[in-house]
Design goal:
There is one protein chain. The chain is of the alpha/beta class and 562 residues long. The protein has a domain of 393 residues: Alkaline Phosphatase, subunit A. 23% of the residues lie in helices and 15% in strands.
Length: 562
């Protein structure tokens, strides 16, 4: 039943499914009907770990409240002037979401299954990868979990296989390369470059003069020396220079979010001098990812705010970080207006996953709360994968609208391809959202299918009260969503009727749950390479399991039935 994934490439290269390559590697094809002069400038602002309830406009939408603890006036203004989606999805963590955004593909099919710290890869540790592996696959990644686990973690790819030096000069289309004729700039968090691997940084995939750091997090003060480091941190890494960052020119700002914002405004100012050449600015914030740090005066403001504690939001530090992020959005919108770029620029604002509920700030407060949604970052419940998503294009997209249509970060690439007049590459999972953007919900829209895959035992609390989350995968088809806990549990929800996942339908609708599980398993078999799947732990004793209850290998049952 499993698809064969071997190919006739030299053993030093990795082997990948044929469907990733071939025609999809060709240069983008312009749409004959497109008017090059009408191509918009594009600004993508990606927040890091910003929960869907962290923006006041979204809090009002879901809670029908007149106030909130967090202050987001500029994001609220963006929502009033654009189209906001209430059912927008990302992946469960940052690197998978970033991979989906840049390729239009579900990250599991790419092999980017999680976000790692500076985890050794076969390349960075100087090892020859096993046959069929990529040199930038993580050698091993695991959280510290004291309990016995029935599944051994799969692995993850730490970079996009874009056709770099370790990809056999073959690769999948990436957004900046697809937008041929655009001047593309990248600012902020990369975390898709194999932890500083040569040939996999923003400039290598088509971004010009990037200001970036290839890591999951960064300090918000005194960061420039860290970003400038060139000494290779892995003794066996076969490159002379570590290519993990470039802090860009000095801005006079001592806080990271403000510094990157100045650099983004400078980019816009430079592009305004060449109005005939469209541009893409991908501004990938570190905010509001940890470490949780903010200017003291901003923190003091939120410590004394009367709304503190609303919706479980107690962290003054996090509130200050949200405010600093909001300031950044406001400054970019202001710059677009001042430079005369407003009407010619399509702006997308979104986040890479849900808010962090499993950690505490430096003062002991839970970072944020995604209620009424269940779960948070690292979960496949709605609180972990449903994110804010706002699109604005003055004069082209009607202002102040909300859409309840389900969308995903995978839709960004095909949508921008369509808007810019290019054909969508083959193999892309996302859809062109133009009919939703320009015609609204009146347009006929297909029933969507979304897939998530997380092949790791994760050291964060499970929704059922267990101390860790086992490997899990999920599918949403139409209104129904199935979460498959690889320990043997199925969770079925009607997201249209029960968006907060309060009623598990799996026991009352076992046939429907089984059908969705079979569909999910078929997708995993066809699209996810074996190394990115969990493996049975031969030392696991089911009789000792007390954390998640009785273990049942549903996948083995499905394979044996077919």
């Amino acid at each position: 039943m499993r698809l064969k994934r071997h190919c006739a490439l030299p053993k030093v290269l990795w082997c990948v499914p044929v469907l990733w390559y071939g025609a999809s590697c060709q240069a983008p094809q312009a749409n004959e009907k497109a008017d090059p002069a009408a191509r918009p400038n594009i600004v993508i602002i990606l927040a890091d770990d910003l929960g869907i309830m962290d923006i006041a406009a979204y809090a009002r939408h879901f809670r029908q409240t007149i106030g909130s603890y967090y202050e987001t006036p500029h994001l609220d203004r963006l929502a009033r002037s654009g189209l906001s989606f209430s059912q927008a999805y990302a992946q469960q963590l940052c690197s998978p979401s970033r991979a989906s955004l840049l390729t239009g593909r579900f990250s599991g099919s790419l092999g980017v299954t999680t976000a790692t710290p500076r985890t050794p890869t076969y390349y960075s540790s100087g090892q020859t990868p096993p046959e069929g592996y990529h040199p930038l696959d993580a050698v091993h990644h695991a959280d510290r979990i004291a309990h016995s686990q029935p599944w051994i973690n799969g692995t993850t790819l730490t970079a996009i296989p874009h056709g770099g030096p370790l990809d056999g000069k073959q690769g999948i289309p990436v957004l900046p390369r697809m937008l041929e004729g655009y001047f593309s700039g990248f600012i902020g968090k990369w975390h898709l470059g194999g932890h500083g691997a040569k040939g996999y940084q923003p400039a290598d995939v088509g971004f010009s003069a990037p200001t970036y750091y290839d890591a999951g997090g960064s300090p918000y003060f005194n960061w420039r020396r860290l970003w400038s480091r060139t000494e290779v941190p892995y003794p066996s890494m076969p490159q002379v220079k570590w290519e993990a960052g470039d802090p860009g020119a000095e801005t006079g700002q001592d806080e990271l979010t403000a510094d990157l914002t100045v650099q983004a405004v400078r980019f816009l100012e430079q592009r305004a001098e060449e109005p005939d050449k469209p541009f893409l600015l991908y501004f990938s914030h570190f905010a509001v990812h940890g470490p949780w740090q903010a200017r003291p005066e901003r923190v003091d403001h939120f410590r004394g705010k009367a709304m503190r504690g609303w919706n479980g939001h107690h962290s003054a530090i996090y509130a200050a970080m949200v405010a600093q992020l909001d300031d950044s959005v406001g400054r970019l919108l202001e710059a677009l207006e001042q430079l005369g770029l407003d009407d010619s620029t399509l702006v997308i604002f979104t986040s890479d996953n849900g808010g962090v509920e499993h950690a505490r700030d430096g003062e002991g407060h839970v970072v944020t709360e995604n209620a009424p949604f269940t779960g948070g970052k690292g979960h496949l419940y709605e609180g972990g994968i449903r994110v804010p998503f706002i699109v604005r294009w003055p004069g082209r997209i009607a202002a102040g609208r909300w859409s309840g249509e389900p969308i995903h970060l995978i839709d960004i690439l095909p949508t921008l391809a369509g808007v810019a007049g290019f054909s969508v590459p083959e193999g892309v999972d996302g859809l062109d959202l133009q009919s939703l953007l320009f015609e609204g919900d009146r347009a006929e829209w297909p029933e969507r299918e979304f897939y998530w895959h997380y092949p790791f035992n994760v050291g964060i609390p499970h929704h059922d009260g267990s101390p860790y989350v086992p490997p899990h995968s999920a599918i949403r088809q139409g209104p129904r969503k199935l979460i498959w806990d690889w320990h043997g549990k199925l969770h079925l929800y009607d997201i249209e009727q029960d968006p907060y996942e309060q009623t598990d339908l799996a026991e009352d609708h076992p046939d429907e749950a089984r059908q969705l599980l079979e569909k999910l398993n078929s997708w995993l078999e066809a699209n996810v390479a074996p190394r990115y799947l969990p493996r049975r732990n031969p030392e696991y004793d089911p009789g000792e399991e007390t954390v998640h209850g009785p273990f049942r290998d549903l996948r083995e049952e499905l394979l044996s039935e077919n």
